[in-house]
Design goal:
By secondary structure, the protein is α/β, with parallel strands linked by helices. The protein has three domains: 226 residues, P-loop containing nucleotide triphosphate hydrolases (Rossmann fold, 3-Layer(aba) Sandwich); 143 residues, no CATH class; 154 residues. Helices cover 57% and strands 14% of the residues. The strands form three sheets. Strands 1, 2, 4, 5, 6, 7 and 8 form a seven-stranded antiparallel beta sheet that branches. Strands 9-12-13-3-14-15 form a six-stranded mixed beta sheet, sandwiched between helices. The protein has a two-stranded antiparallel ribbon with strand order 10-11. The two termini are 44 Å apart. Heterodimer of SbcC and SbcD.
């Protein structure tokens, strides 16, 4: 397939008709399209894919963003009217010329853009002997798909800056199924798998017919058992596949979270210190609160200490009052003496000294009751308590206030440490909580991985058991089927189809293995050709498993590949796939259409690509910014003499429109930063 010409009209930035002729000569097969950001380079890229497949969005477009294909200036100049954007693409394939014209309509009501979904399309096909036109969309899609299927187009039409096929297929990542499907399509493995599926379905249909026609009820039972057992095996295998994908995805997520968790270690250490100091501060505050309560009680208890300076005078007054009191002997003492018949003053027994008993009786009868003695006793008791507790109270008070002051000082010191650490931390509480939650997330993901592994192990054991059961059921089914001679022909058909399926499976396995071996070899060879001399030893070899997941072996280089090196490796892989798919032909099947090809690639590697890719592919189309196409790239292209056509995208005075201007000579291009004088 070689692109010949592109015509755009009112498409994206391109107002009215604009033309590009693609270089397709054997020696000059490079087309260079230059333009600043926003000038419409990706619009050219988008126009080719729109013409071929009716694609409105590119892979790099966000899902939640509407892509408008119709030129906005044309819409604004025709408010309320239908405006049509058309793309016409001419290309050649197997010496047959194709011209596809695709259109889309829309309008602008003064506030909103409305893009209609009813695309119009026509495909003209011509050769030396015939000419034909197709208007039916399904037939057009089928014809284009027979040349290039949309699911493999991203291997040859891509934004090089986002080219990450190899990293998407890295053995440690969740392999991109869409890329795998494209590889199967390109290598025609999918066609073989489709043949296997058709043969299997046909065999099953014949087998069901055999069962339906058989009078052997046991055959029907066995068939039902086989079908049920096959379904159970498929369910288990699906669970295994799903669990393995979940494990791969979880491992990738786990690695990312571990890296984030590791990067947040300093923050978490500071946060933990702050938490520790905060707990100390809270504990200290609790102690201070208790001390304040205790000091409050001390103040209440210490009110009696205010009388300490008056105690000597009070003692003298108490002694004088006691001397003058009528009730020096308390009434209770006299009453207890009469009751116990013992004098509690002298100790004499009253029953042996009648006169003493009589005296006590007289004292009791003459007793003038007064509270003075009790009051005096209480006063003396209070004086004694004040005197006895004075020193200890003063000491306790001093110690308590000292501890309170010390704790307050410690609290300030802790608060200062907290403030200092928070100043070092320089993040908010949500960031700290998020970092702390990473640890729990890691534990959860690890548990999920273990659960998935256990699930895989469990289902694998179940598949083994079901397979043994299936083998026995197949054996019993064949024995039962052989009982009915009238079904021999159909049995033979089913048997032959099963053999065909087995042979096709072997072919797929062998062909897939051979393809992978070739792709591995070619990928290394192309990488060696595309990479600069200084980087040729980056990769020892690559290994590609049956699911086309990559494993890169590096002997002399231990670090990770840069994005530019990964881009070159991905390009080498694409070229390897194309070479395997093109074996038996004189040239590669498809052109190489690259947007922003050099953004991540250094100068030496750019020179290698400029030298080698035109020799590798039948056609190379580059969309370049002024930062990618410098004097070095221009001189390198001039030296190789492979550029056939050059175009400059110039933004016009009307905002939103771009003109496509052909340039005759590379050397006539004035590059950014060059001295024009």
């Amino acid at each position: 397939m070689k692109l010949k010409q592109l015509i755009v009209n009112n498409f994206r930035q391109f107002r009215d008709k604009q033309y590009i002729h693609f270089a397709s000569e054997d020696t000059q097969n490079v087309t260079v399209i230059l333009g600043q950001n926003g000038a419409g380079k990706t619009g050219i890229f988008r126009a080719v894919l729109f013409a071929l497949f009716g694609a409105v969005k590119l892979n790099q477009d966000s899902d939640n963003v509407d892509v408008h294909l119709i030129n906005e200036v044309a819409l604004q100049e025709s408010i309320g009217k239908i405006v049509t954007a058309t793309v016409e693409l001419e290309f050649e394939h197997n010496k047959i010329n194709y011209r596809i014209v695709r259109a889309i309509q829309g309008r602008f009501d003064g506030e909103q853009y409305l893009q209609l979904n009813n695309q119009q399309c026509r495909l003209d096909i011509s050769s030396d002997s015939t000419e034909n036109s197709i208007d039916d969309k399904d037939m057009i899609t089928a014809t284009i798909s027979s040349i290039m299927r949309e699911d493999i187009s991203e291997f040859f039409f891509f934004d090089a800056e986002s080219l990450q096929i190899v990293s998407d297929l890295d053995e440690s990542s969740n392999a991109n199924k869409k890329i795998q499907e494209g590889i199967y399509q390109l290598l025609q493995v999918k066609d073989l798998n489709k043949a296997i599926s058709i043969a299997t379905k046909l065999s099953n249909r014949i087998r069901r017919n055999v069962v339906a026609e058989s009078k052997d009820n046991n055959l029907q039972v066995l068939e039902q058992q086989r079908t049920k057992n096959e379904e159970q095996m498929q369910q288990s295998q699906q669970i295994i596949a799903t669990s393995e994908q979940e494990i791969i995805q979880a491992q990738k997520e786990l690695e990312n979270k571990k890296q984030l968790y590791q990067s947040s270690e300093d923050m978490r250490v500071l946060a933990q210190k702050i938490n520790n100091y905060t707990e100390q501060k809270q504990q200290l505050q609790s102690t201070i609160d208790q001390q304040i309560m205790y000091m409050t009680e001390l103040v209440k208890q210490g009110s009696s200490q205010l009388f300490s300076d008056l105690l000597s005078d009070i003692k003298i007054n108490v002694a004088t009052l006691r001397k003058d009191s009528d009730d020096n002997i308390p009434q209770t003492v006299l009453e207890q003496t009469i009751k116990d018949q013992i004098c509690y003053l002298c100790g004499n027994k009253l029953n042996e000294h009648p006169e003493a008993y009589q005296h006590v009786q007289e004292l009791l009868q003459k007793f003038k009751y007064s509270h003075s003695t009790a009051y005096l006793n209480q006063i003396e008791s209070g004086i004694n308590e004040i005197e006895n507790n004075h020193d200890s109270y003063i000491e306790t008070q001093a110690q308590t206030f000292k501890k309170y002051n010390d704790n307050c000082k410690k609290q300030k010191e802790i608060q200062y440490k907290i403030d200092t650490l928070q100043e070092q931390l320089k993040v908010n509480d949500n960031d700290v909580k998020e970092a702390e939650s990473l640890g729990k997330s890691i534990q959860r993901i690890e548990q999920n991985i273990n659960d998935c592994k256990l699930q895989v192990q469990k289902e694998q054991e179940r598949v083994k058991i079901l397979q043994k059961k299936q083998d026995k059921l197949n054996h019993d089914w064949l024995i039962s089927q052989n009982k009915d001679n009238t079904l021999r022909a159909k049995k033979q058909q089913s048997y032959l189809l099963d053999n065909i399926v087995d042979q096709l499976n072997n072919i797929v396995e062998d062909y897939g293995y051979q393809c992978r071996q070739k792709v591995q070899t070619y990928t290394k060879e192309f990488f060696q050709r595309f990479i600069a001399e200084k980087d040729k030893n980056l990769i020892d070899h690559v290994e590609i498993d049956r699911n086309y997941r990559f494993k890169i072996y590096r002997s002399a280089f231990t670090g990770n590949l840069s994005q530019g090196q990964y881009q070159i490796l991905s390009l080498a892989f694409v070229m390897a796939l194309a070479k395997v798919a093109s074996e038996g032909r004189s040239e590669m099947l498809f052109p190489l259409f690259m947007d922003t090809p050099f953004a991540r690639i250094d100068g030496d590697n750019r020179d290698c690509l400029i030298q080698e890719i035109p020799r590798t592919t039948s056609q190379w189309i580059l969309l370049l910014t002024d930062t990618e196409f410098t004097a070095a790239e221009r001189d390198s292209f001039v030296k190789q003499n492979t550029v056939g056509n050059i175009y400059q995208l110039n933004t016009t005075s009307n905002q939103g429109t771009t003109s496509i201007e052909p340039i005759k000579d590379l050397n006539s291009i004035i590059l950014r930063g060059e001295n024009n004088g």
